[in-house]
Design a protein that fits this description.
With 282 residues, the protein is of the alpha+beta class. Helices cover 33% and strands 27% of the residues.
Amino acid sequence: MKLPDAERMRYTSTSPRVVTNIAMRSNKALSFRAIQPRLRCGSPRALRQRLPVQRAAGLRPYTAVMCSLLKVTESTTGVEFPLVQRFWEGDEFKCLGAAPRLKRVLLFTAKVYAIALYVEASKAAKELKIRDRGNFFQDADSSTYCDAIMDGAFNKVLQFSLVRDVTSAQFINAMEEAIGAKVKFIGASDAFEEFKAYMNEQELKKGNTFVLYWNVGGYLNVGVTSDPVPDFTNPIKGMKRLDNVGLCRSMFEVYMGSDTIIPEAKEAWANGTRLLLESTRI
């Protein structure tokens, strides 16, 4: 379901860059230069992963192993996200960047959570390449790239890592303020009420992780886990499915739309999308 033209948002912003310059010589050497958030090597656990864009970028298997050791580190909170990971459904996903959610509390700024965006990299890269051939990205700003991700016919995930305790009421109220009026306008109120009821039963403690998985089939999976190193290859216990494509887009627009509550995240993901597109031009 698409919003009417009058309701479609115009996206504006800039961004801290995520990762730049994947330079490859004769497919034998791959060098990485990291900017905000930075990439770093992880534990041997990451060896189980493979680079999702190896086919799109023409990379060889041993290069994929090198890339699988990398993580995206959100520098403000210090939270690390795997550069590549699998979820319970879909192909391999790549992290397009991460950013912090900060909240002003009296005289200081509190760190609430770090948020990362994942997309099915191979499918996303192919679709971006098709759009690129049609000059969709000519003179594009960050909003154009974020729009391409939200419009894309591939699965995408927002992953949140809490760095302080948050009450369910606080999170629900923030979402109500951000999209309450919009979901009524598009007829997604019932699905939004289900979402709020589910979140009201969850414990949003420091160290917990929750995900919003937008399936290309038009439904949203919402799940919360206390596992310090979540294994998303299996569905999250007690996960909630919400069948409303309008709610899917509305939830993602909270972070990727014109009224994003985290401009740094939108910018980071736009840059990550640019890099994914550039990988198809190698």
